[in-house]
Design brief:
about 240 residues; alpha/beta; 9-stranded mixed β-sheet; two-stranded antiparallel sheet; 11 strands; about 20% strand
Length: about 240
Amino acid sequence: MRRVLLKLSGEVFGGGKIGIDPDVVNGIAKQIAAAVSDGVEVAIVVGGGNFFRGAELSQRGMERSRADYIGMLGTVMNSLALQDFCEKQGVDTRVQSAITMGQVAEPYIPRKAIRHLEKGRVVIFGAGAGMPYFSTDTVSAQRALEIKADAVLMSKSGVDGVYSADPRTDPSARKYDELTFDDALRMGLKVVDAAAFALCMENDLPMIVFGMEGEGNIARVLRGEKIGTLVHAASAVGTPESL
């Protein structure tokens, strides 16, 4: 893979707590720097779950669109933290925000992002889509398509790929090494938003779902090693049960 879009969940940044764990973010930055040194062009979408989740805030009575905007601001905080640690590793990094905030980030401009990537810079996309009701999973697929990435890499906490059911609650759940987007949608697999699956399927963009847990998993997937689950648009031989 030459150019990839990496999705990082916000929960990872907090090390399981509210806020940012500098040691965790520094470890992520080191892995990204290692991949960049190998010639991989890396763009990143960051979640904000270590600060706020719009859907959860709305369930507690807050108006949904306002709650989502609060969540978007959390993603920008994570983006700036990751930028700082990446640059400490000697990697030129730019943050582009879907919500205008000129003092801390560039506006999101796809062609400018592509130019940064071509120059070997890491680009971090903050503030989600800049609109409520869009998850960062869906934004990851959309950004990957706009910057012409070769694949979208979805990191997950607590699960190392796509399973037939939630392995945290169903001990009989089986992991798939490979399956199609159509199969994932048909079976209603929830590890990634259905909208993200559909976007990738319609545009023939491969997705790799992998677990953050494990030594060097980010560097491994960025370098193209086979970990997690490959989800693709092409018809698979047989059914998911046979994969």
